Amino acid sequence: MSTCDHCEAELPEDGTSRRLCQRCKDQTTGRLEQLPRLHAELSEYLEPTVRPAGSGGHTRAAEGAMPCREDVLLLAAPGGVVRVLENWRAELGGYRPRVDAEPWGTLSGRVKRAAGALASEMEWIAAEWDEAGALARDIRSLVQRVEAITSPTPRSYRLGHCISLGGNGELCGAILRTTGDSPVVACPWCDTVWPSDTWLTLAAAGRGAA
Question: pTM above the 0.90 mark?
Answer without folding.
Answer: no
